[in-house]
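Hey all, sorry for the wall of text incoming. These are the two entities for the joint prediction.
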Amino acid sequence: MDGDAEFASFMRDSSHRLYRVAYLLTGDRGRAEELTQDALARTYAAWRRVRWDDAYAYTRRVMVNLHNDWWRARPWREQLVAQVPDGAGTADPATVTVHRNAVARALQALTRRERTVIVYRYFLDLTEQQTARELGLAVGTVKSATARALAKLRISPDLDRNGPAGLVVAEGAS
Amino acid sequence: MRTVADLRRAMTEETEDLVPQVTLETVRATARRRTVRYTGAGAAVMVLAMFASVFVAVTRPDGLTGGPDPSPVPSQLLPTTEPAPDPSASPLPGPPDASQLPPGSIRVDPSAAPKGDIINTHVLVNASEELVVYFTDGPGGPQMPQMLSGLHSRITGAFRTLGATGAPGPSGSPSFGYLSQVDSHNGRVIDYGLYVGPVSRIVADAQGARVPAQLAHWSVDPKFVVFWVDRHGIPIPADSNNPTTTGPTQPLFTALDNAGKVLATSAGKWAARTDSSYRDSRPQIGDEIRTGAIRADGTELVLRFTGDDRYWPWLSSGDRPLCSFARPPVANGFGPGWNELPIWNEFEGRSGTAILVSVYVGPADRVVVTASGGVRTGSAQWSVYPEVFVFWAADVTVANGPSIQVVAYDKQGRVLGRLGTGR
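and here's what came out:
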C-alpha cells in the first residue's frame, strides 16, 4: 500500500472521531470541520514521518495545538453571539440537536484547558497520565483543571437536569 | 444524568451522528496550499489610530464637509471624478510604501511570527503585489520550520498569505520541499519553493527551456534555501496536486554544486498553485453584492456574507475570506482592522490592474469612494445590516492607487470618517 492509500485508509478510520473531538473543542460544526481538515492536512504533509507512529494521536495533538493557536490569534472567532437567535434552536426540531447544543454550550463555558482536559479524560477516555503527557501538562495540573471543570459543569445551566440536556455532573463519580 | 459517567455518555452519544464533510481531496489540497492567516495587526492598529486622529481633524462642528456631492451612492461600478479638496482636512497618511520597507518590517500575526529575515523576492506577481517569503515554526515545533509565502501590496501595504511549505524532512541529505506556483495571468508564472542543503545554484527545466533560479538563504539557518523562477509558461492547473513533476507544465528543479554536480532534483515532489486555496461553502446571508469589477480570470468580483446563526458572519469573495462581523455588527468605522485581515483587500483585476475592497461599519448614511487616474469605484450596503458598507475600487495601479479616498457621511452630510490608500 502506498502512502496515499495508507493515508486514505487512516482518514477513513479516524476522521469521524477527530471531527467529534473538534466539535467538542469548538462547539461549532463549521469550525470543527475546518479544524479537522487542517489537522488532517498537516498529518498528510507529515505522513512519511508519522505513518509508523500513532498517527491518530499525532493528529489529535495537532488539532489541539491548532485550536489553541486559533483561539489566541483570533479570539473574536470563538465569540458566540450574546443570545442564540430563537430561530437557531427551533430550526432543527430534532431533540438531539437541542441536546447537543446544550452539551457544546456547557463545554464552551470552560476555559480552553479545562475543556480540552474534559474531552481527553471523558470523551477520549485517556488517563490523567496520558492526558498530561499528550497536552504537555503536569499530572497535578490535569487533576486541578478536571476538578474545576467538573465544578463548573455541575452548575452549568445548560446541563441542568431541567434544561435541554438534563445533565447534572457530580464529582468523584467516574 | 448526574455523574461523570453521564457526561461521558452525553459527549459520546450527542456527537455520534456528526458526520464530517472533509474529503481526501480537500485535505490533500489544504496540505499543499493551507492558509496560515496573519496580518499586519500592528499596522492595522497604527492605521486605525491614524484614521481616528483624522476623524477628529475632519469632523467640523459646523457640519460642513467639503467632500464630494453627497448624492446617493449607486451600488454599482461608476466612473469617478476628482474629489473636491477639503480645506479642513489634512492630507491622509497612507500605509508606507511596501517596496521601501526593510526586511522584517512586515507585521504578521503572532501565531505565525517570522523567524529570521523576511525575504523579498522583488517579483511582482501582478500589478502591485510582490512575492514575499519568510520562515516560522512548523506544527512540529521550532526544530521543523516551515516556509510561508505571501503577497505584499505596493499600493496599500497589505499582506496576504498564499500558503505554507514544510521542510523536506529530517533525512539529512539535500532535498527539495513541495513546489509552489503563482499564475501572474499575463503569460508568466512564478515557481518557488524550499531546498535544504548545500547548493551553489538551482536551475529549472520547464517546457523545453532551462532557467536559473534566484536563491536566498534563510538568515537563521543558511542551509534552508528559498528559490524562485519568474518565467514565461503555462500555469499548472489551479487545483493541481500532482504527485509528480513530469507534467508538461511543471518544471523540474535541479540543485547543483560548484562543479556542476547534481545534488538533488525535485523529481517526485508535488507542485501546486498557491494563488487559489479557499472555497467558501457556507450559507449566504442576505443579498450578494455585485461589484461589476472584472477579475483577472474574466469573472466579476461578487461578494457575499456567509455563515450561520450562531457565529459571526464573514464577507467572502467565494475564493477568499475578507473579514468577519459581530451580529449585530460593531460600529468600528473603516476597515475590519480588529480582525486578522488587512483593511484593504486586494484582488487581481483585468489587464494587470488591482481591485481593492474594504468595509465601513457605522452610522453613515452613505460611503463615497473617489479616485482619479481611471480608477472605477462603487459601494453597497449589506441587505441584512445596512450599517455595513462594502466599497471597492477597480482598475487600480501603483500609479493611481494613492488617489483613492473614501468618506463616510451622515444624513446631514457631515463627515464621519475617511480612508485613503495614498502613500
